[in-house]
Amino acid sequence: MTPRFAPTAALLVLAAFSTSVPAQTVLQTDALEQGQVLDDTQLAEAPGRAGRISLVQGKVDIGGDVGAESSPAQLNWPITSRNLISTAPGARTELRIGSTAIRLDGDSSLEVTELDDDSLRLRLHYGSVSVRVLNVDVVPEFELRTAQATVRLTQPGRLRVDAERERDTSLVSVLDGEAQVDGAGASLTVRGGRAAQVRDEDVRTLQAQRDNFDDWSLTRDQALVAAQSARHIGTEMTGYEELDRYGSWSTSSDYGSLWTPQVAADWTPYRDGSWTFIAPWGWTWVDNAPWGYAPFHYGRWVQVRNRWAWAPGRLERRPVWSPALVGWVGGSNWNVGFQSHNLAAHGWYPLSPYDRYVPGYRLSSERLRRLNDWRHATRREQQQPGRYNGLTVVPREQFGGRGPVIVPRAPRPNRPEQLVSGTPGSAPPPPLVARPGWNRDRRDLLERANVGRTGVERPAFERPGLERPALDRMQFEQQARERGEQERLTRERNNGERLARERMAGQERALREQGERERMGREFENRNQMDRMRFQVERNDRERMGRERMREQAERIQRQPVMSTNAPAFARPESRPDSRPESRPQPRPEPAPMLNAPQRPAAPPQMVAPPAPRPQPSAPAFTPAQRNNDQRANTDARGVSRVER
C-alpha cells in the first residue's frame, strides 16, 4: 500500500467500525447536547436486577409508589423498587425474581420497598402473601415487614404472612424452612409447621394452618419446574421457568446454548409487545408472550437456518438485567412512508452477539463488560452496512404520547421490505408524562423552541452558530442535586408524619385497650357482687326451709297420742300364730318327800324379766296396752312365754 493511500484506508476502517457498532441509546452527554435534561434518578447507577409479573388473575393494579396513580397490571411487567401491587377481592397475582416466587392473594396490597443487586425488601400493608425462596444466596437479602412484625429467613423455605386480616394483628406461618420474627419487643425463631401471631404488645406461637391459597401456591411451584432451562441458564435469570414449556434447547458451536421458541416461521423478536418508559432505565420492552421476559432482557437473538433463536450467553450466578437489548435506528432526520405521508420514524432491531450494547442509563464498566462479553462468539458475521435483521419501524410521534407504544397497533411502513438501510440513531426521548421532572424540563425546552420559531430573540447560547456554554452541565447537576435533596427532605417529612400518625394511632389504641380493660374489670366486679348476693339469698332460703322443717316435725310429735300409764315400759310385738302344734314342756316329777324331814317354808315367787323383743320391720314401734281380747304376755319360771286370755 502506498503512503498516500494510508490515510484513506484508515478512514475506511474507522467508518466500517462505526457502521458495525451503531449507537443504540443515548448517553448522558448526548442527551445534554440534544437539549434533554436527565432526571436525578439517572445520576445513580441503575440496579442490575428486576422482577416480573408472571401471572394475573382478576383485577390487579400496579403503581409507582404509595399514593401514586396506578394502572392495570400486565403480564411480563418489570418489577423494581417502590412498586405497589394491589389485588381486588377474588383476584390473585404472582411475582418472580429469579428463583424467588411471591404470590399475592385477593384483597391485598404489597409494596416492593427495595429491589437491587443486594437486597429484596417487601412491605405487606394488608392481605396475604406467600413467599418461596429456593436459593441460599437470597436468604440474607430477604426481608418482609408488616405494621406489627419484621420477618427474615434463616434458611430457604416457604412462608405465608397475613396482615390486618384481624385488626392490628400479623400472622407469620412458616410452612417450610425457618424464619426469624421480630415484633412486640420480642424476637423468636419459627420453624416449619409453626406460626407466630404478633400484636402490638403480644406474641404467641401456634400450629400453622393451610388453606386453598397455600394449596394454589404449592400447585404453581410444582407446575413451574424447568429442569432443562436451569441447566443452561441457571435459576436466577428471571423468567427461566417458562422456557421449557414454550420451546426447545440445543447447543451450537458458534453461540453455545440456544433456545428456539415455538412460533411461526415469519416471527420476529421485539415486534409483539409494547414500549413503556420505566425509570431509571428509560424505554423498556414488555412482551405479550407468556415466555417473553428472559429472552428480551438477557442474552441476544441470532438467526439459525432462517429461524430466530435466543442465545443466553455464558452461565452466570446472577446475570445483569437490561430494559431491552436492541439497537435504535432513525429519528428526526429519517423519514419513512406511512400510508400516504412521509413521517419521521424510529426503528429498532435485536442485537446479535457481535453488536455492542450501549445503555442510556448509568451503568458500571464491570456490568457493561458482562453484558457485552460473549465467550462463544467465535466468528464474525458478514453484515452489509446499514442492514439490520429484524428491523421494526413506527412513526416517531408514537413515542410522544401519554401511554405505552403498542407496537401491533402502530402504523406500518408502506414497503417494509425496502427498509434495508437507515441512519444509526438513538433511543426516542422520554414522553411528556414520564416523570414530574421530565415533564417540567421538556416543557421548558419546547417553550424555548416555540419562542425561537415565532421570531422572538433567543438567549445568546441558543442562537445558531454559537456554542452552548459548558456551565450548563454544572448548573444542571446543581439543580439535580437540589431536586434530589428536596425530594429526600420531602420523603423524610412524609415518613416523620407517617410515624407520628402511627404513634398517635398507637396511643389511641392503648387508651381504647385501657378503657376496655377497665370496663371488663367493672363488669367482672359487678358479676362477683351479684353472685355474692345470689349466694346470700340462697343460704337464707335454705336456713328458712330448715327452720320450717324443724317446726313441722315438732308439731307432728306434739300431735301424737299420749300412752297409758298402766302399760308396761315396753311391750312385745304381737306374735304371729304358729301353725305347728304347741309343744308344752312336761313338768318335772316332784321328788318323793323324805321321811321325818323338816318342812321348809315355800320361797316367794321371783320375777324374771322377759327377753328383748325381736325387731319387726312391719310391726309398730310401740304396741297399745289394751287389746280387744285383753291379752297379756308372761313367762314362766323357765323363760317360756305363754299367752293368757
From TrEMBL:
Basic and acidic residues composition-biased segments: 455-558, 573-587, 629-645
Bias (Pro residues) ranges: 601-618
UniProt keyword annotations, A-Z: Signal
Transmembrane segments: none
Alphabetized InterPro entries for the sequence: DUF6600
Region span, Disordered: 399-438, 452-645
Signal peptide limits: 1-23
PANTHER family per record: BLL6125 PROTEIN, LIPL45-RELATED LIPOPROTEIN-RELATED
Protein name, entry field: FecR protein domain-containing protein
Lineage, broadest ranks: Bacteria, Pseudomonadati, Pseudomonadota, Betaproteobacteria, Burkholderiales
